[in-house]
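Standup notes
- DV: blocked on the single-chain target, sequence here:
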Amino acid sequence: MNRSQVRELAFKLLYQIEIQKEVNNEDIDLFFENNQISSKEAKEYIEDVVNGVSKEAKTIMEEIEKNLKKDWEIDRISKINLALLKLAIYEIKYKDLPFKVVINEVVELAKKYGEETSSVFINGILASVVKEA
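- DV (later): unblocked, structure below
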């Protein structure tokens, strides 16, 4: 399983958390089981992303709000787009990963799972986040 596939699984778990509003270790274990994730590295990465996004939730949400257009409210963002933005901002701000790779992969996930305009929307937000860094 490569990093892109693991990132996609991390997104799926973050999306599940957006829907359920919370997750516990049992939910994460069940997610691993249902998705046949047995690799120690994959599990550690996904747990790191989920725990990191949870720990830094306030800062990540502020980052999203700060980079929205003036007439946009955070409540208008779909749960898929929100999960993708949280994943990308966490990886850009808190992990030592090249932002171009993160943005490219998250935009591709937006094309696969989001609405028609999701990839452009996410790319715009993340471009603003990177400019500030």
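- Follow-up: Residues 11 and 84 are 6 Å apart (CA to CA).
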